[in-house]
């Protein structure tokens, strides 16, 4: 019986790691140019994949928070574009999950407010240049939401 449980646990761990590896290594192509047309100087704004998001259908707060937490060990060591795009993507998906949670958006007022403030600063522009310009706000929002969620473990465990 011990071997059976251990085997199931190992299989589950392998499945979770495989899913994470796929989600971390696949990069969808952008749908088109960034909203707002050309960037200053006439050059098209660089648009990173994962820059415009709709919450994943049926994603719950627990899953969305787990993927946001996965960004905590990442950094801009090599290329900030994908990193900043991913942090923004995870925040947007978490906000969507919170708004769609059966407890209602009123259950998550502070994270939704902070993500809303970030979205106001980004003004719909998820280009690398804009995400870089608002890097501190993006990472501060991620930190705030992480801390808030850690203080509310019933919402993600």
Please, how many helices? 6
Amount of beta strand: under 5%
Please describe the biggest sheet, giving its number of strands, its sense, and whether it closes into a barrel.
Answer: none
Unreliable sequence segments: 1-6, 8-55
Radius of gyration over C-alpha positions, nearest whole angstrom: 17 Å
Gap between N and C termini, in Å? Answer: 27 Å
The count of β-strands is 0
Describe the protein in words:
By secondary structure, the protein is mostly helical. It has 6 helices and no strands. Helix 2 packs antiparallel against helix 3 and helix 3 crosses helix 6. It is globular and about 35 Å long. The N terminus is likely disordered.
Notable features of this structure?
single chain; 157 residues; mainly alpha; 6 helices; 57% helix; disordered N terminus
Brief account:
By secondary structure, the chain is an all-alpha fold. It has helices spanning 2-25, 61-69, 80-100, 109-122, 128-133, 135-150. It is globular, with a radius of gyration of 17 Å.
């Amino acid at each position: 019986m011990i071997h059976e449980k251990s085997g199931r646990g190992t299989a589950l761990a392998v499945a979770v790691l495989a899913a994470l590896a796929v989600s971390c290594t696949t990069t969808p192509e952008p749908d088109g140019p960034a909203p707002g047309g050309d960037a200053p100087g006439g050059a098209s704004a660089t648009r990173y994949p994962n820059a415009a998001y709709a919450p994943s259908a049926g994603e719950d707060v627990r899953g969305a928070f787990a993927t946001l937490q996965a960004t905590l060990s990442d950094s801009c060591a090599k290329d900030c574009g994908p990193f900043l795009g991913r942090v923004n993507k995870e925040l947007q998906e978490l906000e969507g999950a919170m708004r769609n949670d059966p407890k209602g958006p009123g259950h998550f007022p502070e994270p939704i407010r902070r993500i809303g403030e970030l979205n106001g600063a980004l003004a719909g522009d998820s280009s690398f240049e804009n995400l870089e310009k608002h890097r501190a706000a993006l990472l501060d929002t991620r930190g705030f939401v992480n801390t808030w969620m850690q203080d509310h473990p019933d919402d993600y465990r």
